[in-house]
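PROTEIN DESIGN WORKSHEET
SECTION A - STRUCTURE
LENGTH: 125
TOKENS:
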């Protein structure tokens, strides 16, 4: 079983900073893209940022210049450093990963999409 566990959520004032972490564990041979999604009340889940194994990144327009995603492939962990936080950043933040497992001697792989359970970020005075 592959698991993703998020941490670092909490209450922060507007203009403040917060860092989220997501650690992957279980039977994994390789993790490809990992990313952060968020879902605000009464809204659809949306991509915040993602990062490839080779460190290429993508960001939502609403967070460019304020959020930074990074990853440590040694410990299978990604981070989201959030600064200049706004009230509209309030949401449950979910970690996502595409993982691979080798399934035969020829090296064929099976790919799976895994989600964490989420961590709540509240930006308020």
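SECTION B - SEQUENCE
RESIDUE ASSIGNMENT:
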């Amino acid at each position: 079983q592959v698991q993703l566990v998020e941490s670092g959520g909490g209450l922060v004032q507007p203009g403040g900073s917060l860092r989220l972490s997501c650690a992957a564990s279980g039977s994994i041979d390789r993790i490809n893209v990992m990313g952060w999604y968020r879902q605000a009340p009464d809204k659809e889940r949306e991509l915040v940022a993602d990062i490839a194994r080779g460190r290429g990144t993508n960001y939502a327009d609403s967070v460019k210049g304020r959020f930074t995603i990074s990853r440590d492939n040694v410990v299978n962990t990604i981070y989201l450093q959030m600064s200049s936080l706004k009230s509209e950043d309030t949401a449950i933040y979910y970690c996502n990963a595409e993982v691979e497992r080798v399934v035969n001697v020829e090296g064929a792989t099976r790919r799976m999409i895994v989600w964490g359970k989420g961590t709540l970020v509240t930006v308020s005075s």
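SECTION C - NOTES
The chain has no helices and eleven strands.
The mean pLDDT is 95.
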